[in-house]
Each structure stands twice: as structure tokens, then as C-alpha cells.
Design goal:
Blueprint lengths: L3 H4 L3 E5 L3 H14 L2 E5 L2 H14 L6 E5 L7 H11 L5 E5 L4 H9 L4 E4 L4 H38 L1 E6 L4 E4 L1 H7 L3 H4 L17 H6 L7 E8 L5 E12 L6 E10 L1 H45 L3 H38 L5 H47 L1
Parallel strand pairs: 1-2, 1-3, 3-4, 4-5
Antiparallel strand pairs: 6-7, 6-10, 8-9, 9-10
Helix pairs in contact: 3-4, 11-12
């Protein structure tokens, strides 16, 4: 059964000199195909083919043509078309079944030979099959070109080489020569163990084979040594190379992506991390030491300093003494005012008044002496408190 959706993508050149047949079949074809270019003889057919494919740069996917036509028959037209396109599918429709036409058609690589009256369903089915084959060929060609392009890209970014079952290198690409610093003629014939670094887990060809998974595939980072002793790292995929007929393993293909810069940066980062960790641990140790010393100092201060209760008692006593001084000052002021008043009143200087005055003067003197005494005591207490506060402050700073 023909593929309707696929046929709707095709452009067909249809050439037929019989008006009735051309009109009938072209109507059917127009409903099936994307575009149908209708011509009434071989001369017009080759003209339209050149016009569409060369001048308009469009594509004709199929040619359906009668053989026996005026001006230029189908054989002559197809011969010219084959000079322009050797692969396009061509189908002949004819009422003639002579052997000479058939032989010529075979030489021109005719895809299908339909005798009139035409079985339309059979014709469409064959068109679908032959055009699908041709399209698949084009797809394969495109894919092959893409593969070639991909391989060129891969060869520029990956080191690719092949070893036999014993680990002897048989093929290399240019990038491996560049990275390993070995020329191709030295690498080919060399055992893979020669360039594998010997201070890693995977140091031999046998090690890689032992690490292959159930699908005979190895993926991992390999460490290599160049001709001049330089170390380089490559993310490597190793796959078996099998015989296309027997499926026996003939060797292994290494596909390697250079990771040297990333690995070096990673190692440098790890070194910085380790260094920072050591510094951090040193700082933590120093801080713990300082903390311990401070704790010891605090304990010493607590043991040797005056307690907060004693300090409160001293401050309370000092406040009481200050209050006493204020009271004495008030009394002195009162007596001084009295003396001033007596002086201003100019009282008689008789014996009684003199005694009163002397008594008042004595009281004033006693009060002044008491004031001086308390002031001295206050000064001593203030000095003691200042000394204690300085001592506590010094201990806290330590």
C-alpha cells in the first residue's frame, strides 16, 4: 500500500501524447502528489525538466513518460535526462511490449515498466516504493557527509587511537601525536603501557580490560606520560573493534578528551583547600589557647579581687559619710550666718554677751574641725575606691 503522506511531498514530471490518457491520469496524479508537471511530448518534457531543475533550481522527484511520442520519444528524452541526473526514478507507460523497448529501458535504469491500460493503484504503489528508496539513499548520503564532518570535528578536539588485542598501537590521529609529543611513526607499533603513567590505579592495558563493564565498555580518566616526561590527563572511552563478519574482537578504540588543564586546576584548588584548612586549624588552636588563658586569668581575678559585695558596702559607707559632710556644712553655714548677724547688730561687749560670743565661736570652731575631719575621711575612702576600681579594670583587660 502506497504512503499518501509521503507522495504528497513529491513533484512529478508526466509526459504523454494521448490527450485522453494524459487528462485522465494527470487528474489522478494531481490529487496524490504535491505538484504534477504535465507535457505532451518528449521535447516539451526535456525542456520542462531543465527549466525546473536548472533555471528554477527546484527538484523533480519522479518522471512518468510514454515511450512512443512525436517530436522526441520517451527513450530519447530519458537519455538526455540521464545526462543531467543519473539517479532520478523514471517509469515508462506504453502499449507496446516489444523486447527492444524493454532492453533500452533496462539500459536507462528505468524503475518500472507499466503497460496500458494502467493499473493506477499498482503504479502508485511502485512510485511510493522506488521514491522512498531514492529518498533513503539521499538521507544516507547526507548522514555520511555529516559523519565525515563530525569526524573532522572530533579529530580536532579528541585524541583517537586504536590498539590490537595485545595493546599494541596500530592507528593514531594528529591530536594524540601533539599531546603525547610522539610522532606518528613512533606511536604506531608502541605498546599502550609505554604512555600510560605508572603511578595510578589504571597503569596497564590489562587494567583497562579488567575494568570494562558488561557491554565491553570502559569510561574513566586515564593518566598518561608524554615523550618528554610531561603528565597529561584524558577522559577516555574505550570500545572494542569487532570484525564485521565474525564479530570477533580485533582490537580496541580509545576516544580521549584532554582534561589536563582541568586536572591541574583541580589539584591546585585541592592544595589551596588543604593549606586553608591547616591555617584555619592553627587559628582555631591559637584561639583555644588564648581562650584558656583568659579563663585562667578570670579565675585568678575572681580569687584575688574584692568581691562585689565588699565594693557595695564601701560605696554605701562612702555615701553615708558624704551625707554627714553635707549636714555639717549646713550647720557651719547656720553658725556663720549667726556670727554675721551678731557682728552687724553691734551688741554690747559685756561679760555675758562676750561669753555667748565666745561660746558661739567655740561651737563654730568645733564644727569646722569636725567638717575637716570628715572631709579627710571622705578623701581616704574615695582614694580606696579608685584604687580598687583601677585594679579590677586592669585585671579585666588582661
Amino acid at each position: 500500500m502506497f504512503n499518501k503522506e509521503f507522495l504528497k511531498t513529491l513533484t512529478v514530471l508526466y509526459v504523454e501524447d494521448d490527450d485522453d490518457i494524459r487528462s485522465s491520469l494527470s487528474n489522478i496524479l494531481s490529487k496524490v502528489f504535491k505538484e504534477v508537471i504535465v507535457c505532451d511530448d518528449g521535447e516539451e518534457g526535456i525542456t520542462q525538466f531543465k527549466h525546473h531543475t536548472q533555471e528554477n533550481e527546484s527538484k523533480i522527484n519522479l518522471v512518468i513518460s510514454d515511450i512512443n511520442m512525436p517530436n522526441k520519444n520517451g527513450i530519447e528524452m530519458v537519455q538526455e535526462i540521464r545526462e543531467l541526473n543519473s539517479d532520478i526514478p523514471i517509469m515508462f507507460t506504453t502499449a507496446h511490449g516489444e523486447a527492444d523497448y524493454l532492453m533500452k529501458a533496462i539500459k536507462l535504469k528505468i524503475a518500472y515498466y507499466a503497460l496500458k491500460p494502467i493499473n493506477t493503484a499498482e503504479l502508485l504503489d511502485n512510485i511510493s516504493s522506488f521514491c522512498m528508496i531514492e529518498q533513503n539513499k539521499e538521507r544516507i548520503k547526507e548522514k555520511s557527509n555529516q559523519i565525515v564532518q563530525y569526524m573532522d570535528i572530533i579529530n580536532n578536539i579528541t585524541s583517537i587511537f586504536k590498539v590490537d588485542t595485545n595493546g599494541i598501537i596500530t592507528e593514531v590521529n594528529d591530536l594524540l601525536c601533539e599531546v603525547s609529543q610522539y610522532p606518528e611513526d613512533e606511536l604506531v607499533g608502541m605498546h599502550i603501557d609505554t604512555i600510560l603513567h605508572n603511578d595510578t590505579i589504571v597503569k596497564t592495558f590489562s587494567d583497562t580490560l579488567a575494568l570494562m563493564d558488561d557491554n565491553d565498555l570502559f569510561k574513566g580518566k586515564l593518566k598518561f606520560s608524554s615523550k618528554f616526561g610531561n603528565t597529561f590527563y584524558m577522559n577516555s572511552t574505550i570500545i572494542p573493534s569487532k570484525n564485521e563478519y565474525s564479530s570477533d574482537i580485533e582490537g580496541y578504540i580509545y576516544i580521549c578528551l584532554d582534561q589536563t588543564d582541568d586536572e591541574i586546576e583541580k589539584q591546585q584548588t585541592m592544595q589551596r583547600v588543604r593549606k586553608n584548612m591547616i591555617l584555619q586549624r592553627t587559628k582555631e588552636s591559637d584561639l583555644l589557647k588564648i581562650t584558656k588563658e583568659l579563663e585562667n586569668e578570670i579565675e585568678i581575678i575572681k580569687a584575688s579581687s574584692i568581691s562585689s559585695h565588699d565594693t557595695k558596702v564601701i560605696m554605701k559607707t562612702l555615701a553615708k559619710e558624704k551625707q554627714k559632710v553635707l549636714t555639717l556644712n549646713t550647720q557651719i553655714s547656720h553658725y556663720e550666718e549667726k556670727i554675721v548677724q551678731l557682728t552687724h547688730n553691734k551688741q554690747k561687749d559685756d561679760g555675758e554677751e562676750k561669753l555667748k560670743k565666745l561660746e558661739a565661736m567655740r561651737k563654730v570652731q568645733n564644727t569646722a574641725n569636725e567638717k575637716e575631719k570628715f572631709q579627710s575621711k571622705i578623701i581616704e575612702l574615695q582614694a580606696l575606691v579608685s584604687k580598687l576600681e583601677s585594679k579590677l579594670k586592669a585585671k579585666s583587660v588582661k
